Amino acid sequence: MIVVSMTKCPPKLRGDLSKWLLEINTGVYVGKVSARVREALWQRICENISDGQATMVFSAQNEQHMDFYVHNNKSLMPVDFDGIKLIKHLNKTQFQSDSTPGCSNVSGKLIGKRRRNSVSQNSYVLLDIETTGLSAENNEIIEIGIVDVSKGRISSEKNWLVKIQKNIPTEIQKLTGITDNMLQEQGFMLCDVLSELFEIIDGRTVLMYNAAFDLEFLEHNAKKCEIEFPYIHINDVFITAKSMLKGLDNYKLETVSLYLGAENRQSHRALQDCHLLKNVYEKLNKF
């Protein structure tokens, strides 16, 4: 179940949301959709709501049994304290002067209980995939990489090359450096990879960049393999970057990385891009 509340919603965006959700009041939508659709809807909202404000609340298997996103509301700042999602309330003086925001009384009590668990100590998994194209139905996953971060430090990482049925398009080989021979000699069967991956990320916070793309491929292939998709809390750093960094020519991972002064450049290899995403995520947290 998800609930979306918006102000100044453009007619086109209202029409897009009405295809998936029921508008029960002006600017308030409810419905039940998959994680992939939910992330795609939120991305569409952030891209099209202009100067309006948006909040999305959805069911989650955590201590609060829910999670939420906020966009364009300068008086509210979501903060994750070791899996507990809180809202920092900024008064007018605070968000205009960009000083340290204060917390509501309720949030303050929760923060007090978890003061030792700062944001930098959160545990999460970074995930990236490489594919032969843009369509989950017509193209294939050729590589999956994950980096497991525990209390702010990398605890482990893993990379899988994936065997596919067709040859890798020439432009994808040039982009990634992955060849057909590499997949034949070093690749694993996708269903085996997904089983192992889902066991690792189940119940975890997973950071992705443009999560809707990765989720579409993962969910599509999970159905083909008849594997249950895991519960994951998704943090789409792409949406965060678009919300925080205004006026960039584009919001590709490498563009955002260069703007923030992150150390690595995008390689279009799954594991290396996970490390780049970690650098970008940490830079955004300090921005």
Supply the key terms.
Alpha-Beta Plaits, alpha+beta, 12 strands, five-stranded mixed β-sheet, 2 domains, Nucleotidyltransferase, domain 5, 25% strand, 287 residues, five-stranded antiparallel β-sheet
Overall helicity? 25-40%
Strands, count: 12
Cα shape: globular
Topology pattern, helix = H, strand = E: EHEEHEEEEHHEEEHHHEHEHHH
Biggest sheet, spatial arrangement of strands: 2-3-1-4-5
Please indicate the count of domains. 2
Main beta sheet: strand number and arrangement? 5 strands, antiparallel
Name the CATH homologous superfamily of the largest domain. Answer: Ribonuclease H-like superfamily/Ribonuclease H
CATH architecture of the largest domain: 2-Layer Sandwich
Structural class: alpha+beta
Low-confidence stretches: 91-121
**Discrete helix count:** 11
* CATH class type of the largest domain: Alpha Beta
Notes on the protein architecture:
With 287 residues, this protein is α+β, with helices and mostly antiparallel strands. The protein has two domains: 2-88, Alpha-Beta Plaits (2-Layer Sandwich), CATH 3.30.70.240; 123-285, Ribonuclease H-like superfamily/Ribonuclease H (Nucleotidyltransferase, domain 5, 2-Layer Sandwich). 38% of the residues lie in helices and 25% in strands. The protein has eleven helices and twelve strands. It has helices spanning 11-18, 35-48, 92-97, 105-113, 170-176, 180-186, 190-201, 211-224, 237-244, 253-260, 270-286; strands spanning 2-6, 22-25, 28-31, 54-59, 66-71, 76-81, 84-89, 124-131, 141-150, 153-161, 205-208, 233-236. It has a five-stranded antiparallel beta sheet with strand order 2-3-1-4-5, covered by helices on one side. Strands 10-9-8-11-12 form a five-stranded mixed beta sheet, with helices on both faces. A two-stranded antiparallel sheet has the order 6-7. Helix 8 (211-224) links the parallel strand 11 (205-208) and strand 12 (233-236). Helix 2 runs antiparallel to helix 8 and helix 9 runs parallel beside helix 11. It is globular, with a radius of gyration of 20 Å. Mean pLDDT is 83; it is low at 91-121.
